[in-house]
Write a structure and sequence with these properties.
The structure holds two protein chains of two kinds. Chain A is α+β, with helices and mostly antiparallel strands. Chain A is 37% helix and 12% strand. Chain A contains nine helices and five strands, in the order H-H-H-H-H-H-H-H-H-E-E-E-E-E. The N and C termini of chain A lie far apart (88 Å). The chains are: A alpha+beta, B alpha+beta. Strand 5 of chain A pairs antiparallel with strand 4 of chain B, so a sheet runs across the interface.
């Protein structure tokens, strides 16, 4: 047979509130379980067992009332019960002296980002409108609009551009491979495989010649004529080109 | 070299101080400096450029003209030259000018085939100006 819930709790030396907190159950429910007013629901049994670090079987589903403890009463029942004569009445419930919560004040809207202003001007230009047109509609200079308003206007203007694109031939967007870094890597890989020499021009005005033996998106490692290896940071490079083949040598593949 | 690349160079010369440290030191709006450095389109106004010119002790005009030559504009010029089959001239940081047909370009570099048949790979951050513009 299991042990009473209150006994287990006292063995573990934790309060009702702590047990309720650990098990994620209301304090009142724990008190009802402990007083035997209710039997523990099976769906709560696991939680209580875990909270007390015991097996589920160790908890008695229907706890016996604690010896000498008054039966548990709800507040409404206590207040409705007649007070025995000659005994002092219970003091009225103490009202907490709590100051009223401050009312939520929304933050003032932020000013527009500089990039939003630039974007707005560009969209206006594409629509053949001027910032003055927009200022006439909003009643404020663009820079004095707040961020949400500018954002709304950007959405409106973009929608207008989409609509107008249906009537006018849509300007084909150039292929801008900004998001890839593969062409240079392919080129360097081909050069490395062919064992060709490159001549690098650097920002400091110097020139370096060597064979590529490795590279990454940020640097190129070359072997110099004397056999030494040198890693060049791409930020230090201006340009590079294949060196002409030695006289009488084989023409390298382009 | 775009304004963003130039600012990165100046920042490297100052020992690699971080963008937010620069914003704190100059009073620029939070995030503006990072955008000026990293965005491919032109970001920033004359006031911000004056502030940065004073911070880096660089001529204002040196920053100002670069604002009109962002990386995105270089991409557009490269695309237009390739589509039109026309040569493009790239003016480089070291004073060299490379003229030829665009073979490819990507995030970091562009390859130009010169009239002698050679291929020159130019680092994008080293391109000062170009012609034709688009």
């Amino acid at each position: 047979m299991g042990e009473n819930l209150w006994a287990l709790r006292e063995q573990k030396k934790i309060s009702v509130a702590a047990l309720a907190n650990r098990a994620g159950l209301p304090v009142g429910l724990i008190m009802e379980y402990e007083s035997g007013q209710r039997s523990i629901e099976l769906r709560h049994l696991g939680r209580l067992a875990r909270a007390l670090y015991v097996e589920e079987a160790e908890i008695k589903l229907q706890s016996d009332p604690r010896p000498g403890a008054a039966p548990l009463q709800r507040r409404s029942e206590r207040e409705a019960a007649p007070q025995p004569t000659g005994q002092p009445t219970a003091p009225p419930p103490r009202l907490r002296d709590r100051s009223p919560r401050p009312r939520f004040e929304p933050h003032p809207p932020l000013p527009p980002r500089p990039s939003q202003i630039v974007h707005l001007r560009n969209l206006l230009q594409r629509l053949g409108r001027t910032p003055a047109d927009l200022e006439a509609e909003t009643g404020k200079p663009i820079e004095q609009l707040d961020r949400p308003t500018v954002s709304q206007w950007l959405g409106k203007l973009q929608a207008q551009i989409k609509e107008s694109a249906g009537a006018t031939p849509y300007r084909r967007r150039a292929y801008l491979p900004e998001s890839v870094d593969e062409f240079e890597a392919r080129y360097l890989a081909a050069v490395q495989e062919a064992g060709e020499l490159l001549r690098f021009s650097l920002f400091d005005g110097s020139q370096i010649e060597g064979a590529v033996i490795g590279f990454s998106p940020y640097n190129v490692t070359v072997r110099l004529a004397d056999g030494a290896e040198l890693t060049l940071n791409k930020l230090a490079l201006v340009s590079y080109r294949r060196m002409p083949p030695p006289a009488g040598g084989e023409e390298p593949a382009r | 070299m775009s304004l963003g690349d130039y600012l990165r160079l100046l920042r490297a010369r100052r020992g690699g101080i971080s963008p937010w440290e620069i914003e704190a030191a100059t009073g620029l709006t939070k995030g503006l400096y990072r955008q000026m450095e990293q965005r491919y389109r032109a970001v920033g106004d004359a006031e911000a450029l004056h502030t940065l010119a004073a911070f880096y002790d660089a001529p204002f005009e040196e920053l100002r003209w670069r604002l009109n030559w962002p990386r995105k504009a270089l991409s557009q010029a490269l695309a237009a030259a390739r589509d039109a089959g026309q040569p493009i001239t790239l003016q480089l940081w070291n004073g060299e000018a490379v003229t030829g047909r665009v073979r490819w370009w990507d995030l970091g570099a562009a390859a130009v085939e010169t009239p002698d048949g050679g291929l020159v790979v130019v680092q994008r951050h080293a391109v000062e100006r170009w012609a034709p513009l688009q």
